[in-house]
Every structure is written in C-alpha cells, then in structure tokens.
Amino acid sequence: MNSQKLILLLIILVAILSSCSGKKKEITDSDENIIAASERKVADSSVNKEENNQTSPLENRDLIAHILQKHKGKVIYLDIWATWCGPCLACMQSSESLQKEFKDKDVRFVYFCVKSKKEDWQAKIDECKIKGDHYLLSDPEYDALNKKLDINGIPRYLLIDKKGEIVNKKALSPGLGGHVDQNLIREINELIDK
Fold first, then answer.
1. How far is residue 38's CA from residue 117's CA, in Å, rounded to a whole number?
2. Which of 59-68, 76-85, 90-99, 135-144 shows the highest mean pLDDT?
3. How are beta strands 156-160 and 75-81 bridged, if at all?
4. What is the mean pLDDT of the chain?
5. Is residue 134 part of a domain?
6. Residue 170: CATH number of its domain
7. In the prediction, which pLDDT does 71 show?
8. Number of neighbouring beta carbons within 10 Å of residue 80
9. Which distant-in-sequence residues (6+ apart) come within 8 Å of 139 by Cβ?
10. Pairing of strands 166-168, 156-160
C-alpha cells in the first residue's frame, strides 16, 4: 500500500514539473530585432503602483537591453514564470519575502510572464501581490529570449550584476512557503558589495 502511494506521488511530481518545461522553437529574427513588444503592457494591478512599475511598450528593441538600461547600476533578479505553472506560483510567496530582504538595497525584481493570457497574468499579479517590473511576453518574444538564454523550462531565475552582465543564468529560486533560500541571499549580497 505504501509503495503505491509513493509511486502515485512520484507520478504527480513528474507531471507537475514537466508541465512547466518550455518548447524550443526556431526563429528567424536577428538578435538585434528579436524583441518586438508592441503588445506588451504592464499589468494594471491593484498592488501599489509605485512598487509595481508601469512601462511603456518597447517596439523593436531588445528587452534585456531595456531592463539593463532601466536599472543601470542595480543588481537584477529576473523571474521567468507562467500563470499556469504550479512550481512558478509556489515560489511567489518566497519572492515577496526576498523583496522584503532587499527592500532598501540596490536590487530590482523583474518578472517575465510567458505562454500566458493577459487576463490570467493580471489576475495572478493581483492575487499573489507580486511587486516589481512586470512584462507579458508574446510567443515570439519568449522564443527570442529562449534562443538568447537557452531556457529549457520554467520557473527560471537569472541574476544580473551592477555592470549589466548576466552572472547566473540558472540562479536559485527564491524558496518555498515564504522561506527564502539563504544561499540566494548570500549570492545577491555579494553582487551588491562588488
């Protein structure tokens, strides 16, 4: 009986984790013109607008370059997630705790939502009270980002240093259940101190 429960639990876990893996698609756009954000809008969220930054659409520009310019001289923690991804959503409470840890420090939190509907994206931002810069990527934008960063599944986290260099393409998740991973805190503090 116990082995049956264990097998069932493993099957459920595999199903959850595999549901969040992204499919790679071949794209033809050049790297300089890969981010066409004509449909991108920042969520009109009920979360405090000062902490939930609204950004104008980025037409024909590289999204990563835009983020680096906007947060020049800051450490950036980039969270790539989707509204339907269970593991992505499970980390949101800890993401909020991570933000509190670095409240008055030179760290910015940026969220790229992928493969999701606009209505669902806005609802999840409100529901989870996610503060930071929010971008809903179109499929071509995600494909371009995937090509650039070799994203093979979500959630995916990146750390960018104050110089604008991606120092960790597979950064630690914020944690689970509101508990923040101490190794991630240490890694971010090291980047702040550089």
1. 16
2. 76-85
3. antiparallel
4. 77
5. yes
6. 3.40.30.10
7. 96
8. 25
9. 25, 115
10. antiparallel
> What span, in angstroms and rounded, lies between the C-alpha atoms of 76 and 161?
7
Helix (H, G, I), strand (E, B) or coil at 148: helix
Q: Does residue 82 fall inside a structural domain?
A: yes
Q: Are 68 and 164 in contact (CB under 8 A)?
A: yes
**What pLDDT is attached to residue 117?**
96
Looking at the DSSP bridge assignments, the partners of residue 160 are 76, 166
Residue 10 is encoded by which pair of tokens?
């493993």
Q: Determine the Cα–Cα distance for residues 182 and 143; give it in Å rounded to an integer.
A: 32
Pair of tokens at residue 174: 């914020």
Residue type, 35: I
The CA-based dihedral angle spanning residues 91, 46, 132, 18, taken in that order and rounded to the nearest 10 degrees? 30
Q: What is the largest CA-CA distance in the chain?
A: 58
Mean pLDDT over 127-143 rounds to: 92
Place of tokens 């947060």: 71
Global pTM reads 0.71
- Containing structural domain, residue 147: 45-193
Preceding amide of 155 cis, omega within 30: yes
Cα–Cα dist 173/194, whole Å = 22
Q: How many domains does the chain have?
A: 1
Exposure string (b/e) for 163-186, b if CB count within 10 Å is 16 or more?
ebebbeeebbbbbeeeebbeebbe
